[in-house]
Structure formats: structure tokens, C-alpha cells
């Protein structure tokens, strides 16, 4: 069961009773998504690019997706977005987040009208955006594609340690192009070692409010 819960910046998140964790930071869902994934990930990696491909781990409510779609639309960047999700939310729960308030009507409608189809196969949701949400676990996910950016947005190591093992991090990193960018809200010694072991250089960046630091890593 997922319960809609307000966060400190006024945006909602979901509380997942089974896992015992929120989908986003209680200090602000919207500000965390913008800080970690849009600013440190997409804006950084898309400088000078006309197109970008993103692999997200954990589609959840789609907040990272709609903000990315909006940013790429406004900046005329072609977006190929793949987001792995083991336990897709219903469209009714997604609508209850009220994230429609943070993007244009066109972006929201493009997302909502294609969400359920994107869980089955890739959808072209606008002239600049393709979306696919493979309904699978990260461990079972396979593709021939390589991506420019990985948004690693799994539940925390305290609640889902299997999503932070050296093996699963290596599996995720294998889908990134050389020079690609890996971003996540978390940073631990174990994670830094796992990412470095895959040939990445790491950067500690200031975290979103409520977290001192976050990780950005670049594949050699
Ligand atoms: C922190 S939430 C993601 C929040 C999301 N990015 C958003 O903007 O709402 C973690 C997500 O990972 C999904 N998940 C849990 N186990 C998974 C697995 N083994 N493989 C892929 N996704 C998983 C959960 O269902 C949940 O949607």
C-alpha cells in the first residue's frame, strides 16, 4: 500500500508501507528530484548536446521523468528515456501526486496518456521524446542500448540493500556509454568503491536539502 504524504517543500511523495520508506526525500520531493537528477545529472550531461539517452532505475511516480521531459522540450534536446520499474504504480496513484502542477499541461498529458502503454513497449510521446518503462527488476533487465546518463533512484540501502550490492551496481553501470554520467542521491564508502571498481571517476557534490552529499560519477 502506498500513502500520499506531503514533504517539506510542499510537494507530495508516496510512503511505501511494505518497504517502510518514502519514494523521495521528506525534506522535499520536488527539490530533491531537481537537485540530484535534473541539475547534477541532465543539465550537466546535456551541455552542447542535441540528444540524450537516460536510463533510470526506479520509475515510481515519474517525477524525474516529467521534469526531464519538460527540460528537454524547453531546450530542444531529443530525449530517449528508459526507466526500469519492478512494481509499477497505478495511473490513479500517479495522478494523486499532483505533479501536474510542476510541468506544462502538454508535458503532463503526454506522460499520462502514454504511461500504461510505455509499461509494455516504447512510446513516442512527443516529437522530441521516447519513453519506455520496462516492467522488470534491475537484475533481470537486459538491453543492447547504451545510455548517456543513469539516474540511480532505488530505495535506500537500509531498506533495499540488494539494490546497492557491488554486483547490481556493476550491472547498472554496464549500460552506460564511455564518458557517461551516473547520479544518485546517496553516497557511501561502499558505493564509491563499487563505482570506482567499474572504472569511474567520482565527485562528491552537495546533497539535496537534508543530505550533506550526493554522488556523481563519470565512466572512463
Ligand atoms: C525511490 S523510488 C523511485 C522514485 C521515482 N524515481 C520517482 O520519481 O517517483 C524506488 C523505485 O524502485 C522500484 N523498485 C524496487 N525494487 C526494484 C527492482 N529490483 N528493480 C527495479 N525497480 C525497483 C520501486 O518500486 C520504486 O518505484
TrEMBL record:
Superkingdom classification of source: Bacteria
Single GO BP term: methylation
GO molecular function: oxidoreductase activity, acting on the CH-NH group of donors; tRNA (5-methylaminomethyl-2-thiouridylate)(34)-methyltransferase activity
Swiss-Prot/TrEMBL keywords: Methyltransferase, Transferase
Record domain MnmC-like methyltransferase: where: 142-219
InterPro entries linked: MnmC-like_methylTransf (IPR008471), SAM-dependent_MTases_sf (IPR029063), tRNA_MNMC2 (IPR047785)
KW Methyltransferase (keyword) present: yes
NCBIfam families reported for this sequence: tRNA_MNMC2
The protein's name in its UniProt record: tRNA (5-methylaminomethyl-2-thiouridylate)-methyltransferase
Source organism: Pedobacter jejuensis
